[in-house]
Amino acid sequence: MLVGPHRHLIADLPAAAAELRRVLAPSAPVLIRSPFPGRHGQTGLFRFFPEATRALDDYPTVERVRQVFTAAGFRYRTLETHPPGDRGLPGSNPRPVQS
To answer: Where is region (Disordered) located (predicted)?
Structure first.
């Protein structure tokens, strides 16, 4: 299951995580791809429109998302950052981040 960069449209993150846990197979992974507060780095939107970082004020932090999904029964695997222009296509080279 992919939860994309429109995470801010989910009003109740714990309810969403619980529903994903309910409908997915026990070992099914969830990929969350999103900008996070303080981690927008070199994302093109934020490089060219720095004022857009204010929109991230309403996004949950990496720690919050990790806490909510762990509480819902998902296992944390890794946190990766993708270089500018990367769309997560085969052959891309994501960089693991120590957390």
So the answer is: 77-99
b/e code 76-89 from CB counts within 10 Å (16+ = b):
eeebeebeeeeeee
Is the distance from CB of 17 to CB of 48 less than 8 angstroms? no
- Tokens 């919050």 sit on residue: 64
SS (H, E, C) 62-92: HHHHHHHHHHCCCCCCCEEECCCCCCCCCCC
Query: What DSSP designation does 30 have?
Result: -
Mean pLDDT to the nearest integer, 17-45: 82
- Measuring CA to CA, which residue among 29, 44, 28, 43 is closest to residue 81? 43
